[in-house]
Amino acid sequence: MSADGSSVDLRRDGQAAVEWVARYLEGMRELPVRAQVEPGDVRDALPASPPEHAEPFEAILRDLDEVIVPGTTHWNHPRFFAYFAITGSEPGILAELLSAAFNVNAMLWRTGPAATELEELVLDWLKQLLALPENLHGHIEDTASTSTLAALAAARELRPEGVVLCSEHAHSSVDKDCRILGLELRKVAADGEFRMRPEALERALAAEEVAAVVATVGTTSATSVDPVPAVAELCERFGAWLHVDAAYAGSAMVCEELRWAWEGIERADSLVVNPHKWLFTPVDCSVLYTRRPDVLRDAFTLLPEYLRTNVDRVTNLMDYGPALGRRFRALKLWTVIRCYGREGLQGLIREHVRLAQLFASWVEAEPGWEVVAPVPFSVVCFRREGSDEENEALMERVNATGEIYLSHTRLDDRFVMRLAIGNARTTEADVTRAWELLRSV
Ligand SMILES: Cc1ncc(COP(=O)(O)O)c(C=O)c1O
After folding, report:
1. Are 240 and 162 in contact (CB under 8 A)?
2. Burial (0-12, 13-18, 19+ Cβ within 10 Å), 103
3. Which of 145, 251, 378, 379 to mutate to test the pocket of ligand 1 (most atoms within 8 A of CB)?
4. Who is most buried in 8, 39, 44, 280, counting CB within 10 A?
């Protein structure tokens, strides 16, 4: 029995767990990417009631192999090309283990001095890596949905009656956040390349009081980039808060050649980047930067007696977002950045962009196939000649093989497949296999 009363022998079982992780990652290519189970299979394979007596830890690893792995869609698989492909990198995985050992709740500086100061430090590093202005204040949330919620809550402080504007291609988290906050949302039309139209935005800003505009750098469907300089100009003219959603593409700004997409970013009141999307950090890790932390604090500061401490002039992270309790997420971002270095991060992102361009070139060159949106980053939107139903059936056949996993969207009211590259272990051979399957199933 261990000192905490459980059945675990930390050294022995810990080694077995790390060994399990290594085998899982090494053997991933042999696993079907998309889980091949039916609803209910996983529950049916496991006891419906908790154990009366302590079980050995090895029983957990056995169940992982027998039930959890087959019941998992493997987001960490090099042939996972759906949604936005992501990476729980090895440094990130180890840092999650260490963070659980600390188990700190950094709601206040006093309750987590190192977690608080490391979060501030690593977000300063991230600003440098992504060429963001020095004056931004950053903090970590779980997801972009929460980061945008926090930004819109701040905007609402300044204009409680105002509406929110975003393009028709903005992520649905903006809709959900507005619903939670009781803010009206209006959609602004986009151009032929899925970018917000500044003339349409200007008309919307002139029509009523606007609390915030959400511009997207790297939209969810097509990874298009809204014209941030023109949007910023209009926000300044009409006194609206500008929030930039760079949840996916923000990480790519580690590469100088992609920074055209950052033009005007210094004029944003807030912006969100998710290192858990394209910076090799395990879910969850979303960063909200703002140049107006005072407004964010006005929206979220609330101090019951039991949280009062005798230290001032420190950051209390609970003042910047909706949650009180905060886990030590900075540790994994810090570990990832240190174990790759700027060079390593740039190398991976450049390779992903190269692979996406390569795949797009194959699609373009093939009669009867079409790339349906520009490819600025690592996502290719494409379809085959034929009806929506035929394209959907093709995607379903490909996904059913288990060899790769693609997802879809609608652009210009047509069904479109998406191939998203973002896993650190993806190779050219994986992308080649995706193309072979698409043409042969
Ligand atoms: C552009 C964009 N913003 C926000 C989100 C929401 O991200 P999260 O799951 O972190 O809330 C997504 C999800 O894919 C996204 O693509």
Report:
1. yes
2. exposed
3. 145
4. 280
Q: Hey, whose CA ends up nearest to atom 7 of ligand 1?
A: 144
**Nearest atom within ligand 1 for CA of residue 148:** 4
Instruction: Calculate how far, in angstroms, residue 55's C-alpha sits from the geometric centre of ligand 1.
Output: 38
Q: Which residues of 277-301 are buried (b: 16+ CB within 10 A; e: fewer)?
A: bbbbbbbbbbbbbbbbbebbbebbe
Q: What is the DSSP letter of 381?
A: E
Backbone angles phi, psi at 231, to 5 degrees: -65, -40
- 89 alpha carbon to ligand 1 midpoint, in Å? 20
β-partners of residue 187 are 166
- Tokens representing residue 210 in the block: 């606007």
- Cis (ω within 30 of 0) for the bond into 430? no
Q: What's the helix, strand, coil split of the chain in %, to 5?
A: 45, 15, 40
The alpha carbon of 263 is separated from its chain's Cα centroid by a whole number of angstroms, namely: 21
Structure tokens at 435: 């193309």
d(CA 263, CA 269): 14
Pocket of ligand 1 (CB under 6 A): 84, 143-145, 171, 173, 216, 219-220, 245, 247-248, 274, 286
Distance 283 CA to ligand 1 centre (A): 12
The one-digit pLDDT tens for each residue of the chain (441 residues) are 789 999 999 999 999 999 999 999 999 999 999 999 999 999 999 999 999 999 999 999 999 999 999 999 999 999 999 999 999 999 999 999 999 999 999 999 999 999 999 999 999 999 999 999 999 999 999 999 999 999 999 999 999 999 999 999 999 999 999 999 999 999 999 999 999 999 999 999 999 999 999 999 999 999 999 999 999 999 999 999 999 999 999 999 999 999 999 999 999 999 999 999 999 999 999 999 999 999 999 999 999 999 999 888 899 999 999 999 999 999 999 999 999 999 999 999 999 999 999 999 999 999 999 999 999 999 999 999 999 999 999 999 999 999 999 999 999 999 999 999 999 999 999 999 999 999 999
Rounded to 10 degrees, the C-alpha dihedral 353/358/362/364 comes to 50
The phi, psi pair for 290, rounded to 5°, reads -145, 150
Atom 14 in ligand 1: residue holding the nearest Cα:
220
